[in-house]
Amino acid sequence: MQTISEPTAEPRGRKERIAARVRDVPPSGIRRFFDLIQTMEGVISLGVGEPDFTTPWHIREAAIYSLERGYTMYTSNYGLIELRQAIAEHLARRYGVAYDPQDEILITFGVSEGLDLAMRAILDPGDEVLVPDPGYVSYAPCVVFAGGEVCPVPTSAEHGFHPRPADFGERVSERTRAILLGYPNNPTGIAPGRKTLAEIAKVAEENDLLVVSDEIYDRLVYGRDHVCFASLPGMRDRTILLGGFSKAYAMTGWRVGYVAAPRDIIAGLVKIHQYTALCAPITGQMAAIEAIKNGEPDVASMVEEYDRRRRVMVRGFNDLGLTCPEPEGAFYAFPSIRSLDQSDEEFAEQLLREEKVAVVPGSAFGACGRGHVRCCYATSLSQIEEALRRIGAYVKRKRKA
Amino acid sequence: MDEISIKLLKLLERDASLTTSELAIMLDRPSDEIAQRVAELERSRIVVRRKALVNWERVGEETVTALIEVKVSPQREVGFGAIAARIARFSEARSVHLMSGTYDLAVEVTGRTMKEVANFVSEKLAPLDGVQGTTTHFLLKRYKEDGELLDEPEPPPRLPFTP
Fold first, then answer.
1. Domains plus CATH for chain A?
2. Measured between alpha carbons, how far is residue A106 from residues A101, A179, A286, B7 in Å?
3. What is the pLDDT of residues A357-387, one digit of tens each?
4. Which of A28, A48, A136 minimises the CB distance to B160?
5. CA nearest A399: which of A355, A338, A348, A341?
6. What DSSP designation does A157 have?
7. Distance from A179 to chain B by nearest Cα, in Å?
8. Chain A residues lying within 8 Å of B163, measured CB to CB
9. Is A164 helix (H, G, I), strand (E, B) or coil?
10. Lower CB density within 10 Å: C or N end of chain A?
11. Is A384 at the interface with chain B, CB within 8 A?
12. How far is it, in rounded angstroms, from Cα A336 to Cα A371?
């Protein structure tokens, strides 16, 4: 680093074209595998993070019809009022939380934009955010890009990657602004129950923190009900709820999500959104209206299908001795590869080269993900079974060696 | 019938090739229980037959299918049942359904040639006692069969890695 005393010191811009806070974020851990896989054929990828279903036809058809009628213009910064009303009804009906569709719901480019807006709207430079580790790859960078600092809250396989409320309380400092949660979790598939979440809520209450709750996987839960963080006593007023259509309705490419929060917070987010994004794409919004109004049977049948695949995958890993905690939501299994003498990154790379199965190393999701790999079961049953056979062959060789 | 058997039936209806152990894992039940349930469902002819859905057009085999509307006069005591059963026994009849509307029975007939189908209609079906008339519709192309699109193009590829 150059110091001011150096007379030849130049403004940063001459030499270094990228700002420090961007440079400081390491490149995505997945990128390397992406390049490798391009050169290979016959790969089964368990590395995806999206449904293998195509968006149900009635939703696509509604979008096509909207294009035929000429819906190709901007919408309100907040998004189409019809969609916001449908989301408000949906949240009230499912979780008993009330939001005013006029100014407490904002339609965004997926949860990704909602997350970015939330961080930029609530953080001042140096503010800290408590983030459970492992967690979704975007959480830490979004905090950092917004000028904040991440305070990881470790979780471990010993506790099934369930967050422990006391771990949050211990890490609260003067600078802590918020807790950032993502449950059901990517990459672990964990969905903590009401009791745990209520205790985390208590930490938020006692320390006057905001809670940013990414609930994109809310509909993909197995044999349990999703607990909406904002529905916990006293939490509606401190929660920024992030939701979307990508996972439940197989609509990843449409880029439609939403933020539901108290109006003063939404006003802050809208201020950024109106200048940086203007509005989410109208075709996606039109499709989302059809999805939320008539997509319930699709959600049910997709969840049923994921559930069957989940059982096959989890059983498969456990049979191979790669212990796998029971995922309660999303579409990921997070088996441990600690019984093999190698890191999760080595495992992922060798498995791809030798057996042509792509998985994501757990360390891509934080230090606590080490020794695990993320495997997505949103792929056909025959692919899952073949992938398990190949992984089995690999593991056998490794154990012999 | 209990929920497990209903789920079992739905799975088999979609994919008859699923093995007992695969079904057991998916339904989270012991293998012997699943084997027993399947045996019972087969014995009671709830599972009538396990089959594959074949797209013969891709094979290049020429077969001819016709949907035949049949008007019949219902008989005392047995209604449409007796005549329907009589038609259904012909191996040429792939399916026989009683319909509401302008005709009574819908009969799907397959044969190797149009002539074979026409002969069946004129020599076997039409002359039956109680059959008042038939209208034959030859099938030109199958787009969707048993819930499956037959010529659905491969879905566009997904990115192999996404966060």
1. 12-54+298-400 (3.90.1150.10), 72-294 (3.40.640.10)
2. 8, 21, 15, 39
3. 999 999 999 999 999 999 999 999 999 999 9
4. A48
5. A341
6. G
7. 21
8. 28, 30, 49, 136-138, 186, 364
9. coil
10. N
11. no
12. 6
Half-sphere exposure of A166 (CA within 13 A, CB side): 0
Q: Sorting pLDDT into bands at 50, 70 and 90, what band is A2?
A: very low
Q: Looking at residues A97-108, what average pLDDT do you find?
A: 98
Cα A184 to Cα A59: distance, rounded to the nearest angstrom: 25
Whole-complex ipTM: 0.82
Tokens of B26: 């998916």
Q: Encoding tokens for residue B35?
A: 């084997």
Contact criterion met (CB below 8 Å) for A43 and A357:
yes
A33 → closest Cβ in B26, B155, B161: B161
Quick one: average pLDDT of B1-22? 94
pTM of the model: 0.91
Distance of CA A231 to the CA centre of its chain: 20
Q: Would you list the domain boundaries of chain B?
A: 3-43, 62-140
CATH class of B62-140: alpha beta
Q: Nearest-CA distance from B96 to chain A in Å? A: 30
Q: Which two tokens stand for residue A194?
A: 């009401």
Those residues with Cβ within 8 angstroms of residue A49's Cβ, 6 or more apart along the chain or in another chain: A186, A376, B162, B163
* Order of strands across the sheet that contains A257-260: A105-108, A257-260, A239-244, A210-214, A176-182, A128-133, A149-154
Confidence band of A12 (pLDDT split at 50, 70, 90):
low
Output the pLDDT for position A39.
86
Q: Chain B partners of A252 at a C-beta cutoff of 8 Å?
A: 162
